[in-house]
Amino acid sequence: MTYINLENSLPGIRSLVQYRPETGRHLYALVRVLLTGASTLSKGERELIAAFVSSRNGCTFCTESHASAARILLQNQSEVVDEVLEKGSSETLGPKINALLQIAGKVQVSGKEVRPEDIDKAKSCGATDLEIHDAVLISAVFCLFNRYVDGLGTSLPEDSAAFEEMGHRMISNEYKFHPTQQPKPWHT
To answer: pTM, whole model, 2 decimals?
Structure first.
C-alpha cells in the first residue's frame, strides 16, 4: 500500500509518473537520454549500472526491472548481472565497465567518495570523460529514483515474472512517456 493515494494501481516509478505527469515526463526524458541515447557504453552496460546502484540502495522495484533489462540486453548473461549485483563487478566484463561500476558504487554512497585515483583507473582502462560523466549521472539519478519509489512506498508487481516483461517493455519503449491522467491541480 502506497503512503499516499496515487489514484492508480501501477507499480514502482510508473505509478509516480502517472500521478504527477508534469514532473514524470522530465524524469523519463532524463532516463531516456542516459539509458538509451547515443553512447559508447552499451545499453546493457548502462542498465547494469542502474540495477547495481538500485541494488545497493535496496530498491527492489528498480533493481529487478533494470536487472531484467540488463539481462536481456547482455543476451541473457544472467550470471554476469547477478555477479555484479552481489559483488559490484564481474570477471566476465571488461576492466572499463568494472571501473565505471566502482565509481557508480562510490557515488551511491556519496559523490565525495569518488577520488582522483578512481577516475585515473577508469581512464587507464579506456573510459572516456563522457563515459565517466554518464556513469556518475546514472548513479546519481538512480539514487533519486530509488528514494522516490521507496520514499512513497510504491507497490511491487504481485508476480515476480512481471519484471521480465518490464525489462522487455523498457527496452522496446525506450522510456517514452505515456501519461494516462491529467496533471493535478495546484492546491494552496
So the answer is: 0.93
d(CA 85, CA 50): 10
Q: How many CA atoms lie within 13 A of 96 on its CB side?
A: 14
Give the C-alpha separation, 13 to 150, whole Å. Answer: 9
Q: Of 19, 24, 30, whose CA–CA distance to 142 is shortest?
A: 30
At position 188, the amino acid (one-letter code) is T
* All three cell numbers of 126: 579506456
Pair 156, 12: CB distance under 8 Å: yes
pLDDT tens track for 111-147: 999 999 999 999 999 999 999 999 999 999 999 999 9
Alpha-carbon span 65 to 14, nearest angstrom: 11
Looking at residue 176, its pLDDT comes to 85
Contact 127, 99 (CB under 8 A): yes
- Which of 57, 32, 46 lies closest to 151 in space, CA to CA? 57
Radius of gyration, CA atoms only, the chain: 17
Q: How far apart are alpha carbons 89 and 106 in whole angstroms?
A: 13
DSSP 153: T
